[in-house]
Amino acid sequence: MSNEMSERQAFLVLNALPNIGPVTLRRLLEELGGDPRVVLSTERRRLESVKGVGPVISETMATWRQQVDVAREEAQMRQSAVDFITTRDAVYPRLLKEIYDPPIGLYRKGQYDFKHPCVAIVGSRETTLYGQTVAKKFGAELARLGFCVVSGLARGIDTAAHEGALSVGGKTVAVLGTGLDIIYPPENLGLYRRIEAGGGAILSEFPLGRRADRQSFAMRNRIVAGMSEATIVVESDVDGGSMITARFAGEHGRLIFAVPGRIDQKTSAGCHQLIRDGATLLTSVDDLLSELSYLDGLRPAPIAEKPAEAAAGRPANLTEDEARVYACFRGGNILLPDAVSAASGLGAGPLSATLMMLELKRLIVKRADGAFEARG
Hints:
Helices cover 43% and strands 12% of the residues. The strands form 2 sheets. Strands 1-2-6-5-4-3-7-8-9 form a 9-stranded mixed β-sheet, sandwiched between helices. Helix 11 crosses helix 12 and helix 16 (320-327) crosses helix 18 (348-360). It has 376 residues and is α/β, with parallel strands linked by helices. The longest helix is centred in the middle third of the chain and has 16 residues, at 129-144. It has 3 domains: 1-68, DNA polymerase, domain 1 (Orthogonal Bundle); 109-292, Rossmann fold, CATH 3.40.50; 307-374, Winged helix-like DNA-binding domain superfamily/Winged helix DNA-binding domain (Arc Repressor Mutant, subunit A, Orthogonal Bundle). The chain contains 18 helices and 12 strands. Helix 10 (189-197) links the parallel strand 5 (172-175) and strand 6 (201-204). The protein has helices spanning 7-16, 22-31, 36-41, 44-47, 55-62, 64-67, 70-79, 129-144, 157-167, 189-197, 216-226, 241-251, 269-276, 285-292, 307-312, 320-327, 337-344, 348-360, and strands at residues 83-86, 105-109, 118-122, 148-151, 172-175, 201-204, 230-233, 255-258, 280-281, 334-335, 364-366, 372-374. The protein is elongated.
């Protein structure tokens, strides 16, 4: 092997070799002194003395030059503005190093450095309006508090969680089950670009060009859970992929939260099962903060409100309709929906959705008589 190969290039080769899992790669590195260049140059008999390494893997290692073109890999990465971070790098997610089978490297698009605590928000692709609203709300509130919101860029809950974080100028990370040059679903290309432009990152342990298979999304889910302080499941069927993410979170010793839903809604069945099995029922971000038990000074720095909003006494991250309705409750007004409709000019449908959003943002409360008032 050429002495000119760098340690990072050798990590890149090991990561790109097919059919060698992260646990086996970790064992090889541990037993052979930690230098990936040594692993690639070790003779087959010594390789096969490592637990989990048989003739197939040793043959793959011995013929790595025929399987991985380092120059081509690096050229593709440069063209796609992708870098490769390893467990030796300070920017590699700290918590991810602690799991049983961390990737030896991650492809990264975007320059987020993972210095702030991460919280995962995951859920069904076939979601309800309620689920999307809750995921977006929690994504926004956590990002405003300074957390990085982690999800998988999928349709439904993942998309809503990423968009919620971006809506307040917060950081969000998408972990893919494919190479970073394969964007699925394709309609999330715009979201993919916004995450990178907003100072976040898109991650994958898979080389460019790698398409999804039966295992890749489960492997992606362990990264989502592994890099996060807590995992929030908003909506999921009992057999949904989010249940796998929650299981990984539990195996890693991380907090698991589940948002309750309608008992007759299929996409709530998984959340209700998680709650029965011991997950924390989540109704507000305060529930999560209480469980994390962050001390003053150790929480991430919150995103500051925009000066114009603070000066006007208007809470941050309100839509135009939400701000108009919220203004109706100034001075302690207690109003029935008909009175709010008359004061705001909104029809029954838009008003109902707007009142629900203000309740979810904990800005107003519905009284027993059906009227609403601002929270004190």
